[in-house]
């Protein structure tokens, strides 16, 4: 069951006008195609772990003093180092030295994959309380001179605390659906020997809509929910067109689709937990709400989850 939520974005903001002053683009061009107006980016001395620690600490505070974390799972595709994993350093910085800690990488689907991993740790008895963090610093791998990718991504971190619980508890995770197709590896990638990330935008759009919709329908079946049961749809915040199209394909009313992509851009593995935290802060998700999640990312990977929102303090 979900017991706490937290988020952190770096203070530095890059606007569309800032990008237009350096690239062959404009605010209207970016906004009309992506729905993104601003994004947060780190300073040169800030790493993924720094964002993860801040979001993780906020989630632990949200979960309350009785939450004794015994595992840390970090979803990221921009680790501090190629080796070792970043999660142990995050755990140590949070005062959690000695607990299990490891990274997973499913790019933009990382948080949904992490939910399944955390659920498995708890179900197996390997952990009773898991801190799951999604954090990425994509500004470190996106070519700042590429007008097709530079406007899309922002840096950030989001986190949740998950505990053992019963299916009817507030915050219960009811079902998770995961999938992948390695034949689509070139859609979203940093090739060996390259510095910069590359993206096949039109193909990603088609596959993202198809797979996010399919995964959402499958997870609704697993949870025993209908589309009408969903109070809030919180999908990976890739761009506004994808969010709206998936919502339409599923038959979810636009007012039940939550989006914060305009303010933060695509924050990759941080996207869904950051959106959940912002929705909670804004009162857009309330205790008892049935929440549907869906994501598509590099690999290609995709996934969806169904959960009931817990009663959290603001």
TrEMBL record:
Keywords: Acyltransferase, Cytoplasm, Fatty acid biosynthesis, Fatty acid metabolism, Lipid biosynthesis, Lipid metabolism, Multifunctional enzyme, Transferase. The active site is at residues 108, 236, 266. Homodimer. Its EC number is 2.3.1.180. Residues 102-182 form the Beta-ketoacyl-[acyl-carrier-protein] synthase III N-terminal domain. One of its GO terms (biological process) is secondary metabolite biosynthetic process. PANTHER family: 3-OXOACYL-[ACYL-CARRIER-PROTEIN] SYNTHASE 3, BETA-KETOACYL-[ACYL-CARRIER-PROTEIN] SYNTHASE III. Pathway: Lipid metabolism; fatty acid biosynthesis. Catalyzes the condensation reaction of fatty acid synthesis by the addition to an acyl acceptor of two carbons from malonyl-ACP. Catalyzes the first condensation reaction which initiates fatty acid synthesis and may therefore play a role in governing the total rate of fatty acid production. Possesses both acetoacetyl-ACP synthase and acetyl transacylase activities. Its substrate specificity determines the biosynthesis of branched-chain and/or straight-chain of fatty acids. It comes from Lentzea aerocolonigenes (Lechevalieria aerocolonigenes). GO terms for cellular component: cytoplasm. Residues 220-309 form the Beta-ketoacyl-[acyl-carrier-protein] synthase III C-terminal domain. The last Arg residue of the ACP-binding site is essential for the weak association between ACP/AcpP and FabH. GO terms for molecular function: 3-oxoacyl-[acyl-carrier-protein] synthase activity; beta-ketoacyl-acyl-carrier-protein synthase III activity. Residues 237-241 are annotated as: ACP-binding. This is Beta-ketoacyl-[acyl-carrier-protein] synthase III. Belongs to the thiolase-like superfamily. FabH family. Transmembrane segments: none annotated. It catalyses: malonyl-[ACP] + acetyl-CoA + H(+) = 3-oxobutanoyl-[ACP] + CO2 + CoA. It is found in: Cytoplasm. InterPro entries: ACP_syn_III_C, ACP_syn_III_N, FabH, Thiolase-like.
């Amino acid at each position: 069951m979900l017991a706490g939520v937290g988020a952190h974005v770096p203070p530095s903001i890059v606007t569309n006008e800032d990008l237009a002053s350096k690239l062959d683009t404009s605010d209207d061009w970016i906004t009309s195609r992506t729905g993104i107006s601003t994004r947060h980016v780190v300073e040169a001395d800030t790493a993924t772990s720094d964002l993860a620690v801040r979001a993780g600490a906020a989630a632990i505070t949200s979960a309350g003093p009785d939450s004794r974390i015994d595992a840390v799972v970090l979803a990221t595709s921009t680790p501090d180092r190629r080796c070792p994993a970043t999660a142990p350093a995050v755990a140590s910085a949070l005062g959690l030295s000695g607990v299990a800690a490891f990274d997973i990488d499913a790019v933009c689907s990382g948080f949904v994959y992490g939910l399944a991993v955390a659920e498995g740790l708890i179900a197996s008895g390997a952990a009773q309380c898991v801190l799951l963090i999604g954090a990425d610093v994509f500004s470190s791998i996106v070519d700042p001179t590429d007008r097709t990718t530079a406007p899309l991504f922002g840096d950030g971190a989001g986190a949740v605390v998950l505990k053992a619980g019963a299916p009817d508890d507030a915050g219960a995770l009811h079902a998770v659906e995961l999938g992948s197709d390695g034949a689509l590896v070139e859609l979203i990638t940093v090739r060996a020997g390259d510095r910069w990330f590359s993206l096949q935008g039109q193909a990603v759009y088609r596959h993202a809509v198809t797979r996010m919709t399919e995964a959402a329908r499958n997870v609704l079946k697993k949870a025993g929910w209908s589309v009408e049961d969903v109070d809030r749809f919180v999908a990976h915040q890739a761009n506004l067109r994808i969010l709206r199209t998936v919502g339409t394909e599923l038959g979810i009313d636009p007012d039940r689709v939550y989006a914060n992509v305009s303010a933060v851009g695509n924050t990759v593995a941080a996207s869904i937990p950051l959106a959940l935290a912002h929705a909670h802060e804004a009162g857009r998700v309330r205790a008892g709400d049935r929440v549907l999640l869906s994501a598509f990312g590099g690999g290609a990977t995709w996934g969806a989850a169904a959960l009931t929102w817990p009663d959290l303090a603001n």
